[in-house]
């Protein structure tokens, strides 16, 4: 896949595109133009559409001209070929006094993190200590074994008590 964004030089892009056309034996101008439009950046596609160019060679020439023009206008965006030798200049030498400051700072952060962790633990402990767990019910309690809640006698429930049944019948 050939895309214009992969190339820094428009001439190299044109050469690769033409070599692909010759390998694929494509000679129709409209097919070449469509392939060119598919490979171009959207900015250059808009330029071709705006100028209403339908010829492959004319579109390539127009794009090359616009790319060269944009390189001149936006020369600060494109790196030059010359390499400048920059010398490293030491402007300030740091003394060892700062080392003690950094060690003290690290120690304070460690104390702070330990204090923070202990505060979190105490907050969690106080938060959950106010909750009293529900007492576990044992099987030894009478109502778990089928005893009456009121008189604690086995064999009937509170609504089946003899005294209660007699009261209901009497009324």
- The total beta strand count reads 0
| Topology pattern, helix = H, strand = E | HHHHHH
| Largest sheet entry | none
| Shape assignment | elongated
Measured distance between first and last alpha carbons: 100 Å
| Unreliable residue runs | none
The helix/strand class is: mainly alpha
Count of alpha/pi helices:
6
Mean pLDDT: 77
Task: Please indicate the percent range of residues in DSSP E strands (runs of 2 or more).
Answer: under 5%
Oligomeric category: single chain
CA radius of gyration: 45 Å
Helix content: 55-70%
Q: How would you describe this structure to a colleague?
A:
Among the domains are: 4-73; 142-171, no CATH class. It is built from 6 helices and no strands. It has helices spanning 10-23, 29-39, 42-51, 56-73, 97-129, 162-170. Helix 2 runs parallel beside helix 4 (56-73). The protein is elongated.
């Amino acid at each position: 896949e050939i895309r214009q964004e992969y190339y820094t030089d428009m001439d190299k892009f044109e050469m690769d595109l033409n070599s692909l056309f010759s390998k694929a034996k494509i000679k129709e101008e409209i097919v070449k133009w469509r392939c060119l439009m598919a490979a171009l950046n959207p900015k250059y596609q808009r330029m071709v559409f705006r100028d209403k160019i339908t010829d492959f060679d004319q579109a390539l020439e127009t794009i090359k001209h616009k790319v060269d023009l944009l390189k001149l206008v936006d020369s600060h965006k494109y790196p030059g070929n010359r390499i400048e030798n920059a010398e490293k200049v030491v402007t300030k030498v740091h003394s060892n006094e700062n080392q003690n400051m950094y060690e003290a700072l690290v120690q304070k952060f460690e104390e702070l993190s330990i204090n923070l962790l202990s505060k979190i633990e105490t907050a969690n402990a106080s938060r959950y200590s106010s909750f009293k767990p529900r007492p576990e019910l044992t099987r030894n309690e009478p109502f778990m074994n089928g005893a009456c809640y009121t008189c604690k006698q086995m064999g009937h429930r509170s609504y089946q008590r003899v005294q209660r049944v007699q009261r209901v019948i009497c009324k």
